[in-house]
């Protein structure tokens, strides 16, 4: 096969065959295709898109470029959740113990924060001793014993995606629905799951700014799952304001524990319970979504989800004492209150700016090698629709004598738009996309 012909075919809008896609992934993984030819194909895909069968083949080849986990030794349905990323998005942390305490098996591979969105792994590492670098054998053992385990991506998991993503980053081809979808699904399917719940974020703080784009991404992800023989449901959820009140690491663990204690912000509670209900239903532990919701709620009220979280922390070598004593986690030395500069109603909060303010104080990273300050964080005290008087505290920045504090304050002030008219509150769950 001559790769130039493959590039030309896609450039001219024709469908690539499974053999051509296999040739692309095999040879790029082996280092026998140069970056300039692959970059050219990626741009052709960016401009021309891909059909459902092309995407099925691309995802299949990417996921088989490395190890595919085998959880068939566990008798039960293995379900995971993936979020396309938001500010203050700590949902996986209360969600996994809720679903696991209802009998669902969850082999969860999560990411680190980069740019304005945080990462589940960084948040979990606020818990003293918590280990996210667990080898495959122990990962499988903990999933079997505890019903769940949360770790970081290994080098053996979909390595072709890692290589292609780096090239996309350098060639302006990241925001392509086929390339995003195959990237996400190749990693998720390599976890050896049977079912997946997707939280596709939509709004000012998300990759997908409009419902139309989010729907296209969600439908593509669901279709790839269907073609791979997996159950997939996607929820399109609002990502305008940051989720909950806490944006950071330790403070997001505290907020997650509060949810498991039956408290915490209502938006986090609603989203967590919705995704958990679907996981419990997909995991055959409930007769319907509604029944899954009842079981999820009961796991909070009877304390079983909180107990499960404690067991998970212990299994991953962390100090489960944090559940009753938040002071065991990294904290902050200084606090700055950000005050409203005028009276009115909060019209919108630019979540990206709040996320960037977190980076200014060290709670997030600019580049992969940055160290995270787990104690630093932002408390979003007022949300869209709230009435505010000039001088009221709209957000609190907790930091450890960070040099970026002035920039952080400026970003938070810039994030808040205060107008004269109260805006209608909008639903958190915009729509759901199911198979069949
Ligand atoms: N997340 C991924 O895993 N891949 C993408 O391409 C974009 C978001």
**What are the distinct ligands in this entry?**
uracil
For the record, the count of structural domains works out to 3
| CATH level 1 name of the largest domain | Alpha Beta
What is the CA-atom radius of gyration, in angstroms? 22 Å
For this structure, the CATH topology of the largest domain is Pyrimidine Nucleoside Phosphorylase, Chain A, domain 2
The helical percent reads 40-55%
Strand content: 15-25%
Structural class: alpha/beta
Strand order in space, largest sheet:
1-4-5-13
Mean pLDDT: 95
Give the second-level CATH assignment, the architecture of the largest domain. Answer: 3-Layer(aba) Sandwich
Task: Find the count of extended strands (DSSP E, 2+ residues).
Answer: 13
SSE order, one letter for each helix or strand: HHHHEHEHHEHHEHEEHHHHEEHEEEHEE
The largest β sheet comes out as: 4 strands, mixed
Spatial separation of the terminal alpha carbons: 37 Å
Q: Would you write up a description of this structure?
A:
Helix content is 44%, strand content 16%. The protein is of the alpha/beta class and 436 residues long. It folds into 3 domains: 3-49, Transferase, Pyrimidine Nucleoside Phosphorylase, Chain C (Transferase, Pyrimidine Nucleoside Phosphorylase, Chain A, domain 3), CATH 1.20.970.10; 79-325, Nucleoside phosphorylase/phosphoribosyltransferase catalytic domain (Pyrimidine Nucleoside Phosphorylase, Chain A, domain 2); 331-419, Pyrimidine nucleoside phosphorylase-like, C-terminal domain (Aldehyde Oxidoreductase, domain 3, Alpha-Beta Complex), CATH 3.90.1170. The strands form 4 sheets. The protein has a 4-stranded mixed beta sheet with strand order 1-4-5-13, sandwiched between helices. Strand 4 (195-202), helix 10 and strand 5 (231-238) form a beta-alpha-beta unit. Helix 5 (92-101) crosses helix 14 (304-315). Bound molecules: uracil (URA).
